[in-house]
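[worker-b] picked up task from shared queue
[worker-b] task type: protein-ligand structure
[worker-b] ligand name resolved to flavin mononucleotide; SMILES cross-checked against name lookup, match
[worker-b] sequence length check passed
[worker-b] input payload:
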Amino acid sequence: MEFFEVVAKRYSHKASFDYDKKIPEEDLRKIVEAGMAAPSAGNSQSPEFIIITDEKILERISIITQNAILWTAPAMIAVVTRPRVREVLDITTECLICDFAVATENMLLAATALGYCCGWMDGPFTDPQVREKVEELLGIPDDRMLILVVPIGYPLQEGPRREKKPFEQRASWNRYAVERG
Ligand SMILES: Cc1cc2nc3c(=O)[nH]c(=O)nc-3n(C[C@H](O)[C@H](O)[C@H](O)COP(=O)(O)O)c2cc1C
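[worker-b] inference finished, payload out:
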């Protein structure tokens, strides 16, 4: 798929995935390698990734998070960073956030380019109790922090595409002249 087609096609799939259609390991590895190729502050390469395909672990994550979108995903990629990210937003923290965000976007684009649907799921892990349970399940050490998971699969149902604002309402040339809605 051509790059700009991939960018246009990517969307957050929030409907059911086809759980029975599994994703080959080499595709999951490729997707994570796309995340690893992303820029990071000072080339720190701070985000780390856990590829989850074990059905029992997938099920446990769905039970712990009680999240309907995660229930049907045949694979997930957990994105992990350093605990400091929840502290005051100093420059180091800001860089850590940017690092995992750009790595995740690379993976969303890579998954889309390979023909899968995917999403960005961090809501459940903002509850420390949920996050800590899933961190324990995945064996994430104390000096690391689970930020989000990317559910990946083929769609069982088509999900809605969200509208993006027109160019002029988000961007301008040379000086700030964004048409605010
Ligand atoms: C920082 C961030 C956090 C997000 N958290 C969630 C989430 O917890 N659950 C969810 O379903 N989608 C989540 N999303 C996806 C957004 O809802 C989605 O990107 C937005 O509605 C635009 O839709 P699109 O991705 O289809 O273009 C998140 C996206 C970002 C960038």
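[worker-b] attaching auto-annotations
[worker-b] The chain has one domain: 3-169.
[worker-b] releasing lock
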